[in-house]
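User: Mind token order:
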Amino acid sequence: MSYVGETLSNLLHQTAFFNLTWGNYVMILVAFIFLFLAIKKGFEPLLLVPIAFGMLLVNIYPDIIASPEETSNGVGGLLYYFYSLDEWSILPSLIFMGVGAMTDFGPLIANPISFLLGAAAQFGIFGAYFMAILLGFNDKAAAAVSIIGGADGPTSIFLAGKLGQTGLMGPIAVAAYSYMALVPIIQPPIMKLFTTKAERRIKMQNLRPVSKLEKILFPIVVTSVVCILLPTTAPLVGMLMLGNLFRESGVVRQLSETASNAMMYIVVILLGTSVGATTSAEAFLNITTLKIVALGLIAFMFGTAAGVLFGKILCKVTGGKINPLIGSAGVSAVPMAARVSQKVGAEEDPTNFLLMHAMGPNVAGVIGTAVAAGVFMAIFGI
């Protein structure tokens, strides 16, 4: 009987109940909230479901992301190896290839002024950088945190790894992806605050047709120009444009389909669960994380506001031909930010179709955030 009792006691003490802290329960609750938002509310489920599940797993079984040095058999946890691909910048770069293969750059080519709106939305990144310095972050940590303002998870992970801020990568990535998912909640109040009803009702002219040659040359020219000026952006901009060239060339349909479907979804699973697994209670529930989350939100709000305000300027300059709402799409949450521009515009006038116009600044924002990351890396000599 003593053997049976000892065995049952050992089994009981192996359950998670004896090892969980109050912090673990808090993070498990956060994981449940994320799952609710993703499944019930439909907020970027492709991102939030794997992130939330990774969060759930690590707070029940921390060893799932343990390094080989932390285990008794010298073999790391499953998600440790997934996370290593984040640190090595492999998964963020592959995500960019998939995004390129899925994205039509036609609206940006047809309306080059969209580049300016995408650039204006990056104001939040550099504004947050100086705020982070004031809050006590060192220069590299401040840069890694501020890039959240671009609402671009892969770039946030990429820059944090390149700047040696792997200790902050988890909170940075979770904040970036969370704000990407919450774009429909965060952006509309800011857009309405800085625009009038008359501005929101502005109808824009149909975009001109873009030739196949233009679409083929675009990724080649952008890669050549951007990567010559900022070589450190090559992993992101290069993969983004390679994926787009797969799409537009018309001669590698299999590669385009693989990059935009099977490979993209595999990478999202690996990246999402590994990012979620960095949110153990010990790593996430602290003052530094709260600062990162707050700074990321401020940067994102500033970026949205800057895009809208610059849109107002262009509206005046063009005699009312630009709807300022499309400026909010300059953050690089593709295509969610463009959809929000469409939604807010349609609330004022259901016959107003801004989606394709907003896609121009939206894809420009993807390039802009990658360039902003390259600027930081150039500043720090990475």
Notes: The chain has a mean pLDDT of 89. The chain is about 70% helix and 0% strand.
